[in-house]
Amino acid sequence: MENIVIDALAFAPHPDDAEMGCGGLLALLKDEGYKTGIIDLTRGELSSNGDLITREHESENAKHILGLDVRENLAIKDGNIENNKENKDKIIVLLRKYKPKLVLYPYPQDRHPDHENTSKLLKEAIFLSGLVKYETEFAAYRPNIIVNYMLHFEFNPSFVVDISRYFDVKVSAVKSYKSQFFSDNENQIATHISSKAFKEILFTRARYFGLKIGCEYGEPFFINSKIKINDPIKFFDYVIY
Hints:
Order of helices and strands: EHEHEHEHEEHHEH
Number of helices: 7
């Protein structure tokens, strides 16, 4: 079967996680001419608000806002993202099919068990995907760039991306999930992410990390490897206030 190359592929435990964690970077990369995509592991069926049809429409809307080339849902059971062979094989097939240069998934530590389990599952699947004798319909492939994005747990980032030009796009993509976040709907069940306080996190965090690199809005990432820099003068050609 022919491989369809997607340059940057983000994996999300639930629809809306990738938009919050790396929506700005995905919009930036798309604008630079790269092919981008999101793979949602679950359909978010345990969400306190909304239903599956609503959530599908919301994620499809976010796909168009971000200009994604592909978006798929693995329909793994929400609240039970197991690190088993069945789930690893689902991910391995997609890694080998799309051959992404960059893979993004949540940081290993987080308040939501699904977020942490997604990180463990992806780590193992990515390794196995590179083994020639681990057979699937596609040939072995392992991406070189593996990056974690920030959700609830705030880690010390390896680098911060300037998303100032794309912050409005990120916000629009997140706002697609009207059933999940703060609204004036009196029937909405009060949850952590539907609170007014959570609504401000998207803005204050982006402003905070933007300030750290001398721009308006920044998106933080972690990479568990050394970063190669050949020209420090050119690389650090920005002002830190």
